[in-house]
């Protein structure tokens, strides 16, 4: 199983990190070892002083596909989820400065929080899903898939040009505005529409 992540897929988030608007989606991969086991607390790794949360809508691929055209993308996933792409922002900044790959900042153990899965059929329009992240009960990120620069089906089409998609692969579709740092004893929860999808406790 692989985790394919999209960077800078929401306009406001681009402005926040003062990045340039990309001409193509930014794509990176987390290894399967990045998945935070269910019910497990997240321990801030010692190589970073700035782990940021990025709440993201997820889709789970249900069959093998390569060079998938956008209009056929809906038949490649039945389940939608919500997760966190934990990012060691200080490490990422150093790597970015040197033009080096992001894996150490993005793919470390526990950096992929994957909540529960809901059937896509439950939702009227996958391109209009609201979601949010709460930290200690307070909303810190709020987004809607209608604000994506590249919609879910376009993302599936795009990434499948480079990576064969396989059953069980997960796509993290990018984060909206409001990313921020976590601290020991924080308690995060993710909400998709009206449903709580995950909770995570942060340990130091
Ligand atoms: Zn992300």
Word description of this protein:
This protein is mainly β and 204 residues long. It is 13% helix and 36% strand. The chain contains 4 helices and 14 strands. The strands form 3 sheets. The protein has a 6-stranded mixed β-sheet with strand order 2-1-11-5-6-8, with helices on one face. β9 and β10 form a beta hairpin. The longest helix is centred in the middle third of the chain and has 9 residues, at 89-97. It is globular.
Small molecules held by this entry: zinc ion
The radius of gyration over CA amounts to 16 Å
Discrete helix count:
4
Arrangement of strands in the largest sheet: 2-1-11-5-6-8
Strand content: 35-45%
Please tell me what the overall shape is: globular
Number-wise, the strands total: 14
The helix/strand class is mainly beta
Helix content: 10-25%
Order of helices and strands: EHEEEEEEHHEEEHEEEE
Question: Which whole number gives the mean pLDDT?
Answer: 95
Multimeric state of these chains?
single chain
Report the sheet with the most strands, covering strand number, pairing sense and barrel closure: 6 strands, mixed
End-to-end Cα distance, whole Å, is 28 Å
């Amino acid at each position: 199983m692989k985790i394919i992540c999209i960077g800078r897929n929401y306009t406001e988030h681009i402005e926040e990190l003062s990045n340039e608007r990309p001409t193509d989606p930014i794509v990176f991969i987390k290894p399967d070892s990045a998945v935070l086991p269910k019910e497990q607390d997240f321990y801030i790794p010692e190589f970073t002083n700035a782990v940021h949360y990025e709440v993201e809508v997820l889709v789970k691929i249900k069959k093998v596909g390569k060079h998938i055209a956008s209009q056929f993308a809906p038949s490649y996933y039945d389940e939608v989820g919500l997760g966190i792409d934990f990012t060691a922002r200080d490490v990422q900044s150093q790597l970015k400065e040197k033009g080096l790959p992001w894996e150490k900042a993005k793919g470390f153990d526990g950096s992929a929080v994957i909540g529960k899965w809901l059937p896509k059929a439950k939702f009227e329009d996958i391109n209009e899903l609201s979601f949010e992240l709460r930290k200690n009960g307070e909303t810190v990120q709020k987004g809607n898939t209608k604000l994506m620069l590249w919609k879910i089906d376009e993302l599936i089409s795009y990434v499948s040009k480079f990576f064969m998609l396989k059953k069980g692969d997960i796509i993290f579709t990018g984060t909206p505005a409001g990313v921020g740092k976590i601290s020991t004893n924080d308690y995060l929860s993710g909400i998709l529409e009206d449903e709580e999808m995950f909770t995570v406790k942060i340990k130091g």
